[in-house]
Specification:
The complex is a heterodimer of chains A (315) and B (268). Chain A has 315 residues and is α/β, with parallel strands linked by helices. Helix content of chain A is 35%, strand content 30%. Chain A folds into 2 domains: 223 residues, Rossmann fold (3-Layer(aba) Sandwich), CATH 3.40.50; 65 residues, Alpha-Beta Plaits. In chain A, the strands form 3 sheets. Chain A has a 6-stranded mixed beta sheet with strand order 6-7-8-3-9-10, sandwiched between helices. Chain B has one domain. Chain B is 78% helix and 0% strand. Chain B is globular and about 65 Å long. Classes of the chains: A alpha/beta (315), B mainly alpha (268). Chains A and B meet through helix 2, strand 6 and helix 3 of A and helix 1 and helix 4 of B.
Chain lengths: 315, 268
């Protein structure tokens, strides 16, 4: 079975400058393989080369060198495009058409007709929670609702591989939850999902593998559990009904004690601080436990390390 | 072919709901107002003036639709990035360009049809409200069917202008594409002067250059038969056929070039 997505030394230079154009390398020799059924998070700060990669995979731009294949066939092959879908960042469609008309139009471009079009349109509108707005013209929709239309059009052909460029962009918390659920549903169906994001918590909960981009290069890739050691870095303890004197007395036992409201404090404890014993003592003194959370290295910590290191190397 | 027609229908729907109806309303209102005013002010020439003014307005409003919607539709798709959604579907860039063009031509045809109906309605009303003596002085009947030849050639000319607009919008900014298209439309109407430039200048290379420019630039003068139909003069069928054939060749060349540019373009 061929890889769902495969790139080999994929490179893209843009010419910048008007009078004396010079090449600017937006993507530098990207070699990547995504297996069928994987949810791959393509992470990186702005300008890292994520959108350039997606545009190359959609053949919206042509590579300076290197090659890319989707489902074992060259990108741009019309047969491949029947089996994939793409959601661009901040999508825009047709102002004067309704959500239903735009989706029916896209469904027909995939070769569907008649009742099949109507069924698919109704289903994807339901999937993205937009059944109530189906007859609204797109110019009347908010940014978040437009993003949902974008997601709906990316589902219309039951794709085998879905490419999503910043799919959570512009969505409220409810919308983001819906997108997360949708990606999980796609994963359950065996669909390969390749999504770019700089919201790392999403990648952490959704992705089987991630790749981290910086300065046009892939600086790290692998399973989240392999990249992040999940080593315990300390504890965050929040207590209420604690007197100021009692809080001052904790200075030697916590790395920091921060007052967050009257009688309410956050304590940053070392990994070996034995929080259970401390909680017992505080309770005996009349304080109330609000929360206790372990502090571990997150994907965000790892991401920041990698991106900083890449910038330093380039400097 | 199915993909091209699907794109064309979407373009048509989008355009018709956009600015086009306003152009038609403005045209109709102007025409009505002008016909009443002119009927008051002229003695015996009112029908010729109304016919001439109507055809000129039809041509100008048609040009407005062809240029602004023609350029807007493609460059807006690129600028606002809806082209990303289209080209990631099983749609080739060739189908995209041809579909856009076909949709624009459909929009143009619908608009010209509505304007033609309004035009004939005004002419019919003028015919009804004129005396037999006034009618006897007209070189041709008010609702002369030969006016349709002039309108047909305006349509062919506007199809060519639409192809020009589409061609420029595949690689330049909307403003530049608008200026180039309108510039070529103006030049196209005075292009015939370049053909015999040697009668004006002594320099052979300059005359040769002028002749080369004559062949490259669109020659739009033959599309204008307004004066002939308004004055009831005959129009040779051969002239109509040659002019339409010229439009077909020129449009095909422009669309081939537009497709070639669009296929190589990076959409950043």
């Amino acid at each position: 079975m061929p890889a769902a997505i495969e790139t080999e030394g994929l490179t893209k230079d843009y010419l910048v400058g008007f009078w004396r154009p010079r090449p600017y390398r937006a993507l530098d020799a990207l070699t990547l393989q995504v297996e069928p059924g994987e949810v791959f998070g393509f992470l990186g700060p702005n300008g890292a080369g994520k959108s350039t990669t997606l545009k190359l995979l959609m053949q919206l731009i042509y590579p300076t060198s290197g090659s890319a294949k989707i489902l074992g066939r060259p990108v741009g092959d019309l047969e491949v495009r029947r089996r994939i879908s793409f959601l661009a960042e901040n999508p825009y469609y047709y102002d004067y058409l309704t959500a239903e008309e735009v989706l029916a139009y896209f469904a027909r471009l995939f070769g569907y007709s008649g009742a099949e079009v109507r069924t698919r349109v109704a289903r994807v509108l339901d999937d993205v929670g937009m059944a109530g707005q189906r007859r609204m013209r797109l110019r009347q929709l908010s940014k978040g609702l437009l993003q949902r239309v974008g997601l709906a059009q990316a589902l219309i052909n039951d794709p085998e591989v879905v490419f999503l460029d910043e799919p959570m962009s512009g969505l409220d918390p409810l919308g983001r939850r819906q997108v997360r659920d949708l990606i999980l549903k796609l994963r359950e169906r065996g669909c390969t999902v390749f999504f770019s994001s700089h919201i790392l918590s999403d990648a952490e909960t959704l992705c089987s593998r991630v790749g981290i981009m910086a300065q046009g290069r892939m600086v790290a890739s692998g399973r989240v559990s392999d990249l992040v050691a999940f080593e315990l870095k300390g504890w965050e303890l929040v207590v209420a009904d604690l007197s100021d004197d009692a809080a001052r007395a904790l200075a030697g036992r916590a790395r920091t004690v921060t007052a967050i409201a009257h009688g309410r404090f956050t304590l940053d404890l070392a990994p070996d601080a034995e929080p259970e014993r401390l909680i017992g003592e505080l309770r005996a003194g009349g304080a109330t436990l609000v929360s206790l959370n372990p502090v571990r290295e997150t994907l965000e910590d790892y991401f920041v390390q990698q991106v900083r290191a890449a910038k330093e190397r380039q400097a | 072919m199915r993909t091209i027609s699907l794109i064309a229908v979407a373009v048509f729907k989008e355009s018709v709901r956009d600015r086009v109806p306003y152009a038609m309303v403005v045209f109709a209102v102007l025409l009505m107002a002008a016909s009443y005013l002119i009927a008051q002010m002229t003695a015996g020439q009112d029908m010729k003036i109304i016919k001439d003014l109507g055809l000129a307005a039809l041509s100008i409003f048609g040009l407005f639709i062809a240029v602004f919607i023609g350029i807007g539709l493609v460059s807006k798709e690129v600028e606002k990035k809806s082209v990303f959604a289209m080209l990631s579907k099983p749609v080739s860039r060739t189908q995209f360009v041809l579909g856009k063009y076909a949709g624009l031509v459909m929009t143009l045809a619908a608009n010209l049809s509505v304007m033609t109906i309004a035009y004939y309605a005004v002419l019919y009303y003028m015919d009804l409200s004129s005396s037999p003596a006034a009618r006897a002085g007209w070189p041709a009947p008010a609702t002369d069917p030969r006016l349709l030849f002039a309108i047909g050639l305006i349509f062919a000319e506007l199809m060519l202008v639409t192809a020009l607009a589409l061609f420029f919008s595949t690689y330049s900014s909307p403003l530049l594409a608008t200026l180039l298209t309108i510039g070529l439309w103006v030049a196209g109407h005075f292009n015939a002067d370049l053909r015999n430039f040697e009668t004006v200048v002594d320099s052979t290379p300059v005359a040769a250059l002028a002749r080369a420019i004559y062949y490259v630039l669109p020659n739009l003068a033959p599309f204008d038969v307004k004066a002939e139909v308004v004055h009831g003069m005959p129009i040779a069928m051969r002239h109509v056929l040659y002019t339409v054939a010229y439009a077909v060749v020129y449009i095909t060349t422009l669309l081939t070039a537009a497709v070639a540019i669009f296929r190589r373009r990076d959409f950043q």
